FMN reductase
Amino acid sequence: MTARILVFAGSIRTGAFSGRTADAAMKELALQGAEVTRISLEDYPLPIMDEDLEKEKGIPENALKLARLFSAHDGLLIASPEYNASIPPLLKNTLDWVSRVRKDGAAPLQPYQNKVVGLCSSSNGQFGGARGLYHLRAVLMNCQAEIITPQCSVSGAADAFDEEGRLNNERQHKMLEKVCRTLIERASMLSTRVDM
């Protein structure tokens, strides 16, 4: 079975390094035989997570759309920037809202259950955004997702990509290859996806 992987970045800033990292991961996953869906969180705007708002108006439609997308894929690849050594607010808010989804109409829906996640980060600094991945990993584990051990952090991100969007640095490229390979293998093993 071909693994279906959903790819998105934790930033929607124009020219965001995480967006370029997500694009590089999308290409690598496709090269390794995955069926890849690349989305932008810009297309799924959400209010700030607020349980009073949820009680009053219910789960936002975009959170439900994302939960359906998560469920329709075997794995996720998230490319995240680092904000103050942690998770960017856009990404945290998105993951929190999706975690509130329990059903789709009358049918149960558990978007993180048996979901395998690969993590990448990027920054112009020397750590490549890696510090933020510790917190991202903890959040996703609490949501009951399985996070693979290999991860890829792209430092010096302003000069890290060639004209075709490939990583220039061979070590970083091999890290990305390993993340994608491990994600595909593990996601294929654990697949319980719900086809839309």
In short: The radius of gyration is 16 Å. The chain has one domain: 4-190. Residues 170-190 form the longest helix (21 residues).
